[in-house]
């Protein structure tokens, strides 16, 4: 699965984009966040305040309890500050 | 007649006159046009620039989705949303929203709605860079913006 | 700093870009600019022109009074009101209001307020002239406009 | 006193502007309207729907019960339709 990070989430993880293998027991966005946190310290730091993190699956906003389904891209980022 | 919103995400500045003409020229059905311009502000004189990061692809897609919601909700004759990205210095434009309609209430409400939704839903993030040269700081999302966006769901529930 | 509104009553058209720049150029304290443009509408294709009569002197004075009320009510950095008079053909501009502020809520509300008050208080009258050449007809005032203007007094009482 | 008329009030009276002598018993705008109505048929026709008529004294909106005071100009017109 393609994973993208933006703003301070990106800075903490240390990469803009990465491709990861999603284990079979990872069904929801929350599962995916837990999995990413387990990868290394950077990911753990990025998702420390995980309730603050917003998520998009295939470029659509979703909640953290959303199923990953057949999404090809997940993106993680802080609350938006455009405009 | 289906109205197609014009959505652009670009590093370049925009020209409000040109965008206004695009929505009005050669037409007789536009009675009211409301435009909102958001600019980079720096009263304190401490900011060297805002850096606007965005999610390419999703930024455009989300602005189109918000525009479609506005078009379903108000009888508009045209709608334009332009959001810049990259480095923007104080005094420069950041965002432009123009709503055109036969009547002024629809144009005002649609532009207001669009800005509220854009602020909380369009994937853009601002980082402040300072004159002092100290490392950049990500701007925090404002609770007020979420409350502003919620006004439109309340209205929907009441009607 | 006292903000002086720019009020003009003129037969000529206006340029929204020029008027926008006048409120923003060389400044770093403007974060939001809301402009309203009112245009002469004619979906039916029966109108040859609107004739806008005004009360010279009082039209300017009343627009200044309404602008001062907006400036007292919202923290604006600038305010422009331009109203045309004389013959205006369908598709042409009639009125321009621009409110500039640090924040978007103030700019939106001030522009909205100004249009509501202008509609019911500024001494202008529209006469429709038809393509058919039959004698002109004075436009009736809309009850809706009076209700729109009343929204602002209600708000005042609530706060 | 200088009297000005606008829009359909002007068209019915037949003049844009006129100077009239205000009798001593004319104290308020309503008194002035009654006096103008008595002048001729055109004035009577212009003020027929007198509750619809708006008034300005020296270029300020006033109600019909307002005192004329030392105003030098009164203007009569229909509800405004600008914007």
Please tell me about this protein's structure.
- The complex is a heterotetramer, with 2 copies of chain A (83 residues) and 2 copies of chain B (159 residues).
- Chain A is of the alpha+beta class and 83 residues long.
- Helix content of chain A is 27%, strand content 23%.
- Chain A has one domain (2-77): Ubiquitin-like (UB roll) (Roll).
- Chain A contains 3 helices and 5 strands.
- Chain A has a 5-stranded mixed β-sheet.
- The termini of chain A are far apart.
- Chain B has one domain: Molybdopterin biosynthesis MoaE subunit (Aldehyde Oxidoreductase, domain 3).
- Chain B contains 4 helices and 8 strands.
- Chain B has helices at 16-24, 58-73, 104-121, 143-158; strands at residues 6-10, 32-39, 47-54, 76-84, 86-88, 93-101, 124-130, 137-138.
- In chain B, helix 2 runs antiparallel to helix 3 (104-121).
- At the A-B interface, loops of A face strand 3, helix 2, helix 3 and strand 7 of B.
In brief, what are we looking at here?
The complex is a heterotetramer, with two copies of chain A (83 residues) and two copies of chain B (159 residues). Chain A has 83 residues and is α+β, with helices and mostly antiparallel strands.
CATH superfamily of chain B: Molybdopterin biosynthesis MoaE subunit
Helix content of chain A: 25-40%
Radius of gyration of chain B, whole Å:
16 Å
**For the residues shown, what is the average pLDDT of chain A?**
97
Strand order of the largest sheet of chain A: 2-1-5-3-4
- In the sheet with the most strands of chain B, the strands line up as 1-4-6-2
Main structural class of chain A: alpha+beta
Helical run tally of chain A: 3
**What average pLDDT do the residues of chain B reach?**
94
Please give the share of residues in helix of chain B: 25-40%
